[in-house]
Write a structure and sequence with these properties.
Helix content is 27%, strand content 26%. With 302 residues, it is an alpha+beta fold. Helix 5 crosses helix 6. The two termini are 13 Å apart.
Length: 302
């Protein structure tokens, strides 16, 4: 995967969305902890919790959840896409560069149409969108108990311009950790209930008896079960018919969202040309999700 994309790094996290249990967590590049001094400090990071990045279109699942919960949009509602939209003098284009014309909200999610999400984000407003973003766990460490966990970055709604709201609606102007994103999407899979993720499931004594077990820790109900089910149906369309077809698994029904975000210049001042963070987040089987997963490929080319 890293070779094909000529990527600088990657992380994969797999979680049980019904319990918060982390089933797998991996980062690349890696290092030998017995000889850590032979490796660059950047290699020591657990990218799942210690990098912050603009999530791009994977964050649109949160925007859709907020709009559906607030009843600001209907699945069959028609929008007009001209290929771009201007907000406060800033022109935002679709990732494909195309214009889709008259589209439903379902189409907007399936094809990840930026102009449609900007329109939906403007309906929500900076205050409500930020409130839902925080309710889904962004802007705060998940408290998973691993060292080096970042909190991410969120605007204060009072400081947001309309252009900031527009870009946040498509997953820019916000910085998250991979674990935050997976935890948030797992809440959608879990009928709208956000759980605290954990690493250690059980600890046993030397005689084989159980010393301790980590219980499922409910944080809050973010959206209603009905909203979560409706959004799950839409995200399933992304995998079965839309931009996430490569995530389809024969014989199973999965839901998910792709994302491609421009990478910020390490020296500051805008984005690095031709450098991207590519990702996919999803869960399934849809009828009763048993696994949720996030793959993030950092500094991918092409």
């Amino acid at each position: 995967m890293l070779f094909r994309s000529q990527a600088r790094g990657a992380t994969v996290i797999i979680m049980n969305p019904r319990t918060g249990e982390i089933l797998a967590m991996a980062s690349r590049p890696t290092y030998d902890p017995n000889k850590f001094y032979r490796y660059a400090e950047e290699n020591w990071k657990n990218r799942a919790i210690s990098i912050v990045y603009e999530p791009g279109s994977t964050f649109k699942s949160v925007v859709a959840a907020a709009a559906l919960q607030e009843k600001l949009v209907r699945v069959d509602e028609k929008f007009t896409d001209n290929g771009f939209i201007e907000v406060s003098g800033r022109r935002i284009r679709n990732w494909s560069g195309e214009s889709y014309g008259s589209v439903t909200f379902l189409d907007i999610i399936k094809e990840s149409i930026n102009t449609g999400f900007v329109q939906v984000g403007m309906r929500l407003g900076s205050g409500r969108l930020t409130d839902y973003t925080r309710a889904f766990g962004f802007g705060k460490a998940t408290e998973i108990g691993l060292p080096g966990e970042e909190e991410g970055l969120l605007f204060d709604p009072k400081d947001m311009r309309d252009s900031d709201l527009a870009t946040m609606s498509i997953g820019q102007s916000i910085a998250v950790t991979p674990l935050q994103l997976l935890t948030a999407v797992s809440a959608i899979a879990n009928e709208g209930v956000l759980l605290r993720p954990y690493i250690v499931k059980e600890i046993y004594n030397s005689d084989g008896s159980l010393a301790s077990a980590t219980p499922t820790q409910r944080v809050r109900q973010v959206i209603s079960p009905d909203t979560a089910k409706e959004l799950t149906r839409l995200l399933e369309k992304v995998v079965s018919e839309g931009g996430g077809k490569r995530a389809a698994v024969k014989g199973y029904r999965f839901a998910g969202k792709t994302g491609t975000a421009e990478r910020l210049n390490e020296s500051g001042g805008g984005y690095a040309a031709g450098r991207y963070i590519a990702s996919f987040v999803g869960f399934g089987p849809v009828a009763y999700p048993q696994v949720s997963a996030l793959v993030v490929i950092d500094y991918a080319r092409g």
